Amino acid sequence: MASYERKTKETEIRMELNKGTGESSIATGVGFLDHMLTLFAFHSGLEIDVEVNGDTQVDDHHTTEDTGIVLGKLLREVMGDKSDIRRYGTSYVPMDETLTRTVIDISGRPYLSFNAEISREKVGSFDTELTEEFFRGLVINAGLTVHMDLIRGGNAHHEIESFFKSFARALREAMQPGDGRLASTKGLLA
């Protein structure tokens, strides 16, 4: 288990992350983000316990981005030395009319390619552009190379949900035990 507390003038975050399929407890103050993190935890095989107090009276930006940052830091810790993981993961996820693809390399080199035009600017009160901000914070702080593509769109809720699910499933695959050796001819994942 890994835990982290982050306090800024915009957010206060307390989060614990553990490998496992137990119950998660998610309270960010942003309903749509809570929904996305709940399904992310389920599909990734991770347990998330998070509580966020953010400046949501301004908007959801700081809460969403900072939650991604903290999740990325904890994910890096949970992955450990990466000495026996598959390293690569790919997942296609359909949600009715929507189809997304996420490809992950647990490389130690942060890079995000996010190719999507979300069909609406908001889902409820959630600004859909925050989806990319969340994943950018997570990817940079976890040290992942990630390519995410919206192949077929439709409903904005489905588009974003399929991204969270496809990322989670690709991550779960990449974190699976490998063949007993470091998955790099360089001898280092960094």
Automatic annotation (TrEMBL):
Keyword Oxidoreductase applies: no
Keyword entries, A-Z: Amino-acid biosynthesis, Cytoplasm, Histidine biosynthesis, Lyase
Enzyme Commission number(s): 4.2.1.19
Pfam family for this entry, one: IGPD
Enzyme class: lyase
GO MF terms, alphabetically ordered: imidazoleglycerol-phosphate dehydratase activity
Pathway info: Amino-acid biosynthesis; L-histidine biosynthesis; L-histidine from 5-phospho-alpha-D-ribose 1-diphosphate: step 6/9
PROSITE patterns hit by this protein: IGP_DEHYDRATASE_1, IGP_DEHYDRATASE_2
BP term (GO), one: L-histidine biosynthetic process
Signal peptide segment: none
Protein name, UniProt field: Imidazoleglycerol-phosphate dehydratase
Source organism per UniProt: Bhargavaea cecembensis DSE10
